[in-house]
Design brief:
single chain; 175 residues; alpha+beta; 4-stranded antiparallel sheet; 39% helix; elongated
Length: 175
């Protein structure tokens, strides 16, 4: 489709505007598809430094304000990749959406990082990793609670846990 369709979300009202036959319905379906997939397509780079620090020191800290400032950057590649697969969302021919671009601009000013947060990885009755953030703090602390002799948690599993936690804190409130 051609043309520009704009979603304006204000409080609990969503306004979709555009001339006839400019793709408003396609845009809504594309957005719905993105909302169903965002957790699997948005990821943060360089989480290996945090997993290494957690493994080596037993604790790591993440300044969430730094990640909040970079939300537009974190959306660029997922939106670009999602654009390539729009034809699958609509079960159409591969070239039907050639030239189409899916792009999100989020108002991060309404993202409030002041709340308290806690998330845990458990094995049986034992906590293995705890992510916590105090109220009115922007520091996410991640502590490994493994004892000597325990099998180590693989670094990629730690990175996935950190990625999922950041998605919970930074994107879930916006979506």
């Amino acid at each position: 489709t051609s043309g520009l369709v704009k979603f304006i979300i204000w409080q609990s009202i969503t306004i979709i505007c555009g001339k006839n036959n400019t793709g408003k319905t396609y845009a809504v379906y594309a957005f719905y598809g993105f909302l169903r997939l965002w957790r699997s397509i948005i990821s943060f780079e360089t989480l290996d430094k945090y997993s290494k620090e957690l493994i080596d020191l037993g604790v790591t800290r993440i300044e969430l304000e730094d990640f909040k400032k970079r939300i537009p950057f974190f959306l660029q590649n997922p939106c670009k990749e999602y654009s390539k697969f729009l034809y699958k969302i609509f079960a159409s021919s591969e070239n039907f959406f050639d030239g189409s671009v899916f792009q999100l601009e989020l108002d991060t000013s309404r993202l409030n990082l002041n709340g308290k947060f806690k998330k845990t990885i458990r094995s049986g009755k034992k906590d293995l990793i705890v992510c916590s953030k105090d109220e009115n703090s922007s520091i996410l602390e991640i502590a490994g609670l493994q004892e000597k002799g325990d099998d180590p948690i693989p670094a990629d599993a730690i990175e996935q846990f950190i990625n999922d936690t950041l998605l919970d804190i930074l994107f879930a409130p916006l979506f």
